[in-house]
Amino acid sequence: MLFTELELSEQLLQAVADQGYQTPTPIQAQAIPVILQGRDVLAGAQTGTGKTAGFTLPLLKILQDQPIPQKPRPLRVLILTPTRELAMQVFESVRTYGKHLPFIAEAIFGGVSINPQIQKMQRGVDIVVATPGRLLDLIQQKHVDLSHIEHFVLDEADRMLDMGFIRDIRKIITLLPAKRQNLLFSATYAPEISALAEQILHDPVEISVAKKNAAADTVTQLVYPIKREQKRDLLSFLIGNGNWQQVLVFVRTKHGADRLAKQLIKDGIRCAALHGDKSQGARVRALEDFKKGSITALIATDIAARGLDIDQLPHVVNFDLPQVAEDYVHRIGRTGRAGAEGQAISLVDQEEAYLLAAIEKLLKREIPQVADTGYEKVSLNLNAAKSKSPQNAKPAPRATTGRSSRPSVKSGSSRKPDTERKPVNRQRSGNR
């Protein structure tokens, strides 16, 4: 199938061609015709499969077929995302594919001044891509009116639940018109997603182009059994010995990201840290430097697991395994995108063996372990540690309720969980 067979307008086809695309991905080929019919959609696909264009293109076509409203334009399309990075990515897609069309889009998220967003909303906007916290701020200040919404998109719904956004989502849904089109996209599935879908979707078409909770076949996955105190040295060795030019490294905590970045800089590796305590400007600069190759390693917490779209990213390293097994799929989904090959390496010590067991249970297969790292031969027996785990290889509980939800920490640990979200005062423009 070609994009020309999907009943898109000439302007949209020109924008697609400008990006060098001729053939839609499977999720695009299935979702675009259904969305154009006005149906509700529950869609699941691996990250990097083009699902953003899968809903952006048909929604732009639907708007194009309608008369342009009088000024100020009412807000007709609302797209909710869990993080600023994903909001910016979706917003850029809307601008890219809608560049030949007369529609106005705006991205709304915390961590930046609220005043420019207020001014743009007052002038009239057709499409808003938003994170829930800042959107509710603007709604409460009466700068956003959701009464004319015709199309509602919930992107990365599972991550929304993990981050404790369920109350915000329900509050926003109560402000939407009863008659609207609903599109729910998620890279992984959980029972909570099905429950949410039943609440907001009406007779949906379910689209799934990959196994649930599966990693892309283009990603080579390896486990390096290594003592925690040796992880930093092994990572420096892998980067230097392999002449890696671009690697995204995931750690569990913000403090850990800053510490590892400083250590790698001492090793002569150009790098930057990316996490929720960084200002929006610092996060944007770090991403831009990483994309253009000014830095080799980007050390990130799970805030970067969604929304990062980096062409041909060759390497992802799990310096710390995630507490929630599904997050592993999102992390390694930053490589091997759009059919390209990638490598995902996990540095695992014995104390993390139960997390590895949970990930392998989710993937329904074992991840190969490297016996000789080239740095030193491995003496750890992770398989034995898995069987001895008091957690019995169960993943940490998912956060499914309100804002107070926090990721679990391993039983017996004295360290408090490090989270990306902090309690905030709704009357202030916080870092949301």
Give the secondary structure arrangement, pairings included.
Blueprint: H1 10-18, H2 26-36, E1 41-44, H3 51-64, E2 77-80, H4 84-97, E3 105-108, H5 115-123, E4 127-130, H6 132-140, E5 151-154, H7 157-162, H8 166-174, E6 181-186, H9 191-200, E7 205-208, E8 219-225, H10 231-241, E9 247-250, H11 254-266, E10 271-274, H12 280-292, E11 297-300, E12 315-318, H13 325-332, E13 342-348, H14 353-363, H15 382-388
Parallel strand pairs: 1-6, 1-7, 2-4, 2-5, 3-4, 5-6, 8-13, 9-11, 9-12, 10-11, 12-13
EC number: 3.6.4.13
Organism: Methylomonas lenta
GO molecular function, one term: RNA helicase activity
Give a quick precis of the structure.
Helix content is 36%, strand content 14%. It has 432 residues and is of the alpha/beta class.
